[in-house]
């Protein structure tokens, strides 16, 4: 089973994320069919990559049981840390990620998406993103240092063969608004202690100098001595006065994504990720990203 290739299509500089909810009275299968009808034309002649995901329960309702990751589920309740810090749940029914090398192509294809889903689903949220300084986020640090290589990424980002949902992925999507004014008041050394990495070259701080609340400490997961990776496709969003990071994390299972967030809010040990003092989550949702073969079963007749 083949994963949607746009997950791994690096090098695109322009991005847009469209989130939809099913309209009242519309059957979920109609939404899936309408979305799938957009994938082929937009990805082949539209000049963009289109990756689509669905609310896990919606996909479970319409998909073949063998195409459904067994543990995927919606984010329905806010995640609240012991000090009251909140990661909000803003789950939607469908998530479409449009990426390309040209802003015009991304814009025009996003309009085609909204038009193509009219009468089936309503647009809840639109976010425009771009790649900042090649591989950095708006804090100035390299983003995705822990990412696996493209040779290893499919094993990290997709459900393994032999289990339900093989080849599909679970994606976590969040918007994080940065408080750049407060962040810029920190010295470079202070910023590095928040992140757990050096700023110029993204080298992890030595163990004896790594703060317990650093972003590295709180987000790197190890189970039985093995690091559990995810595949990040983060970009910057917004303008000068209001901006941040679109976090897009693909995983073979949802647990590691949820555990990363629990650790960031300090669940269990009360140690909250220091980066959350300077960046605030605005949204949060999980989606199942089906395989190409699973989507093909919903293709309109003229696309068979």
Terminus-to-terminus distance: 18 Å
CATH architecture: 2-Layer Sandwich
Strand tally, please? 14
Structural class of the helix and strand makeup?
Answer: alpha+beta
Shape: globular
| Multimeric status of the protein | single chain
What letter string, H or E per element, gives the SSE order? EHEHEEEHEHEHHHEEEEEHEEH
What is the top-level CATH class? Alpha Beta
Q: Which percent bin holds the helix content? A: 25-40%
The name of the CATH superfamily reads Apc35880, domain 1
Q: What percent of residues are in strands?
A: 15-25%
Task: Return residue spans where pLDDT drops below 50 for at least 5 consecutive residues.
Answer: none
Main sheet specs: 10 strands, antiparallel
Any chance you could write out the topology, listing elements then pairs?
Layout: E1 14-22, H1 28-44, E2 49-54, H2 56-62, E3 79-80, E4 86-87, E5 94-100, H3 103-116, E6 121-130, H4 153-157, E7 169-178, H5 180-184, H6 188-195, H7 215-219, E8 221-223, E9 226-228, E10 231-232, E11 235-238, E12 243-251, H8 255-265, E13 279-281, E14 285-289, H9 292-296
Antiparallel strand pairs: 1-5, 1-6, 2-5, 3-4, 6-11, 7-12, 7-13, 7-14, 8-9, 10-12, 11-12
Helix pairs in contact: 1-3
